[in-house]
Amino acid sequence: MNFKRLLSALLICMCIVPATTMAQTGSTAPADREYTLEATMLGYMATDGTRNPILKAHKGDRVRINLVNGETMTHDITMEKLGIKSKVLVEKGSKTSITFVAQNNDTYFCSIPGHRAAGMVGSFEVVEGPIENIVTIKGQLPQKNGKPLNLNFETGTLQDWTAKGDAFKDPIIAQDPSPMHEANMRIGIAGRFFLSSGGTKNHKLTGTLTSVPFKVTQPYAAFRVSGGALHDTRVELVRADNDSVFFQITGSGRATLQPVVVDLQKLKGKDMYIRLVDNETGISQIPYIRNDVMAHINFDDFLFYTERPNFPNELKQEDIIILPPLDVVKYAGLSGDSAAKVMTVPAGFKVTLAASEPQIIKPIAFCMDWRGRLWVVESHTYPVRAPEGQGRDKIFIFEDTNGDGTLDKKTVFMEGLNLVSGIEVNTTGVYVGAAPYLLFIPLDIKTDKPAGPVQTLLDGWGLEDTHETLNGFQWGPDGWLYGTQGVFTQSSVGAPGTPDSLRVKLNACVWRYHPVTKKFEVFAEGTSNPWGIDFNDYGHAFVSACVIPHLYNIFPGGRYTRQWGPHANPYTYIDITTMADHVHWIGERGPHAGNFRSGPVGGGHAHAGAMVYLGSENWPAEYRSDLFMNNIHGARVNNDHLIRKGSGYLGTHAPDFLMANDTWSQWLNFRYDASGSVWAIDWYDKNQCHSPNPDVHNKVLGRIFRISNDKDKWVQVDLSKATDMELVNYQLNKNDWYVRQARLILEMRGPNKKVHNALKKILNDNPDDTRKLRALWALHATQGTNEKDLIKLLSNQSEYIRAWAVQLISEGRNASDKAMDKFADMAKSDTSALVRLYLAGAMQRTQSAKRWDVAEALYKHAEDAEDHNLPVMVWYAFEPLVPLDINRAINIAMQAQLPNALKFTVQRIGAMDTPESKKALSDLAARIEKSEHAHHMMDVTDLIHKLLEAPEAKK
Question: Fewer beta carbons below 10 Å: N end or C end of the chain?
Fold first, then answer.
């Protein structure tokens, strides 16, 4: 999707008609005040260039807001307090409106999920008196040799200017609408003439235009500019004595001239000149994105001012998203064979087309079974759930029977499913995410057919945004089924019939479900719309996200940066930020601005799929334990190195692993197989962003690819036929595909004493931490451990074993007093930041009254003050203790060696708003003032005073 800034129109009409009390959409009755705005992802645009303008009316006025869609994308307009919204627009140029009676101030915004957060929001104000624009002071033309310079082009010539290149050969325009611009573009000329480097008609021309030098005689200047928000379409103000640029600004991506104010106070008395630069052709390398016709610069009316002028539509640099050149992507809309051939992979690798339309259409999710077969969901219902019983989604089993990389065998498992978004399989059945349900389909592994009717395990998954429902299914090392859900869908999950009060409320999160115990829970909260989760050799989880920074190390109880909305716990106060040291978009103006223009850093903000490669050792060692994710707007597979740092990891950007070189490429997930090769599903589509409109998405395309190393050797295997001891031995395999599948089969076979003894031997005797962990996970999944065994592991020399023992003990939320005593000792003396992190996570699963000793000890580790996770996670563990014993909490916070402990404790006490809490804060303020360290805690005392003096600030 290409977010282009287009023209808008602001019409203010005053027609006296009787007011009505009705709020309407699409009304054509006369209005007292009428506005027309254009909607783009960059905001609502007015004709004078103002972004998200303040719309004004008198109380009782009948107001109409017309909306014009500025791009082929879903938009609407909603009045927040009135609770009315327009119909949803999809096509560029489509229109709608809302009509209402002005009574109170309100907020208008786009209700499409994510659009308000991206900046589509403005204010509506009910005012008294005249509604009029600000009148600014009059400016004056700069002079040279006693004569005004032609810096407003009112001579109709290029007098006082020198042109180079083609763009400024015939630049003076005296009409509005301009003959050099598209017919619907209003320029807003200040006088008789303005200048353009070709307009939209000749945007491919390039060149520069430079004024004669002149002396700065006033403290301020202003000029009008419009055109491309591109680095190479800009106005430069240059010092004449050293030719240094002291101010520059681009256009804003629209045609309407807007005033720019420049402070010249430090340059008064010096000579300067103006240089207009247009080195941008606007020629698009992406087939389905048209040339950027705004690749030009419009300029007019450079004037000096005796004081700073005020303009209601002033253009400021912070309002402009300056874009680099478009990425070069050669192809689009290719056949499956051609798409595979044009992909670029490292030396020694190849891409094979495994299946394409009509063999597979719209693959939205897939998984792999114990035979290396692909279970693929073909999505025909998305994005709108069909009426009950009318679902059209299908599940197929694909198999490569001869090792040539093509899926030559296809078996239909089930049809008639509805809005499927996730799938996983084990030897007992298939787990299917189909909001509002998590389903289970019993499986006969001998016939590959359902062994019974579809079962509803859970219901209550939300449908607000069908792109952000339950997805990304992946078996965890601990035997749980993990998945993700996005931020704009609100779910209330439980087994069918569960009362609302007992349901799990969730939106953005990683959740998990246990196939044996049937338990469901939120594992960690936050991020945006993650569409992929995977685990490394140490069982640590990672997700890829969209819009916000893309990479997160997920651990129990973590609360992560959210794209939108508050955390479930209102006392969170701080969240865990990305583990990555980079983003995949260009510049500082947000993620959407980087799409299609972020080649050097990874391609754009939208990611799908997450795979930590732990497959064959035939692949170069540099790829093992790296996390691969598809970058949708970048048409490539990003690769991040995962480096242990402190209690967690640092994600650094490695060279992109694969370039699709095809803008329609949309890989959604990948998995490695028994040979080490990687399989990927491709939702192949011209449209690169989800939409609730089914017609926006292509309905007949889809691909599956295999990426293999030249050394990969095809194998045929069926682990369901392996003996228990063979499955135990697979826990030592170098390829984690065998490890995971064997562990899953053992879990489904249930407890087995011989299996447990063999796994305990690996746990006790194998020198490799990763093999010990595999044995521990398999023991846990097969019910082969108890708390007594796990308490012994708390003294293991491996920090990974100790951390996992902490997690497994606390999994049932009922750790014994003996375990809690050991936790407290570890919190004091364990040398591993990783172990301390898992202790902090375990406390969130522990009764609050039992946490004191562990939380207090964790707060005393000064070495964790700069850790990425621990200061945050320890607060999450400590926060519920504050209302239990305010004074004890204060004493702990006063001695804490981790940042924000005292500040957050004060905030939490203030939120209680009781006589006891107020007295505690007053006493604390007095205590701090008497302390020899009072000057170091001024921010805390200021916070206390604010909480005591301003009750409304407590929350």
Answer: C
Instruction: Compute the distance between CA of residue 679 and CA of residue 701 in angstroms, rounded to an integer.
Output: 18
Taking residue 579's Cβ as centre, other Cβ atoms within 10 Å add up to: 24
Residue 717 has pLDDT above 50, yes or no: yes
Do 578 and 543 contact (CB within 8 A), yes or no? no
**Whole-angstrom distance, CA of residue 215 vs CA of residue 234:** 22
Please tell me the distance from the alpha carbon of residue 54 to that of residue 508, in angstroms, as a whole number: 32
- Give the relative orientation of helices 769-781 and 753-765 as an angle to the nearest 10 degrees: 160
pLDDT digits 0-9 by tens, 795-846: 999 999 999 999 999 999 999 999 999 999 999 999 999 999 999 999 999 9
Please list the residues that pair with 521 across neighbouring strands. Answer: 512
Q: Within a 10 A sphere around the Cβ of 818, how many other Cβ atoms?
A: 11
Question: Which one has a higher pLDDT value, 689 or 484?
Answer: 484
Tokens of 30: 């006369």
Structure token pair of residue 845: 């699963």
Alpha carbon 393 to its chain centroid, in Å, reads 27
Measure the CA–CA gap between 514 and 481, rounded to whole angstroms.
6
Q: Are 193 and 172 in contact (CB under 8 A)?
A: yes
Answer whether 556's CB lies under 8 Å from 577's CB: no
CA distance 638 to 229: 27
Give the separation between CA 669 and CA 860, rounded to whole angstroms. 43
pLDDT at position 852 is 98
The Cα 848–Cα 68 span in angstroms is: 54
Within 10 angstroms of residue 722's Cβ, the number of other Cβ atoms is 19
Q: Band of the pLDDT at 256, cuts 50, 70, 90?
A: very high
Phi then psi for 773, rounded to 5 degrees?
-60, -40
CA nearest to 99, candidates 196, 23, 178: 23
The 10s digit of each residue's pLDDT in 220-240 is 999 999 999 988 999 999 999
Distance in angstroms (rounded) separating the CA atoms of residues 168 and 299:
12
At residue 8, the pLDDT reads 30
The pLDDT mean for the chain works out to: 92
C-alpha 391/C-alpha 765 separation (Å) is 52
Q: Is residue 130 scored above 50 in pLDDT?
A: yes
Please check whether residue 659 is in contact with residue 344, taking contact to mean a CB–CB distance below 8 angstroms: yes
Say what the pLDDT of residue 21 is.
Answer: 34
**CB under 8 Å to 654, separation ≥6 — which residues?**
622, 626, 639, 640, 641
Q: How far is CA 715 from the centre of its chain?
A: 38
CA 185 to chain centre: 34
C-beta pairs of 908-917 under 8 Å, 24+ apart in sequence? 908/571, 908/879, 908/882, 908/883, 909/882, 909/947, 910/943, 910/944, 910/947, 910/948, 910/954, 911/570, 911/571, 911/954, 911/955, 912/883, 912/886, 913/951, 913/954, 916/886, 917/886
Which amino acid makes up residue 211? Answer: S
Band (285; pLDDT cuts 50, 70, 90):
low
Distance CA 525, CA 487 (A): 10
pLDDT in tens, 617-673: 999 999 999 999 999 999 999 999 999 999 999 999 999 999 999 999 999 999 999
Give CA separation, 236 vs 232, 243, 278, 447, 900, in Å: 11, 11, 11, 73, 45
Other C-beta atoms closer than 10 Å to the C-beta of 371 total 18
- What are the structural domains of the chain? 33-127 (2.60.40.420), 143-319 (2.60.120.260), 357-709 (2.120.10.30), 718-785 (no CATH)
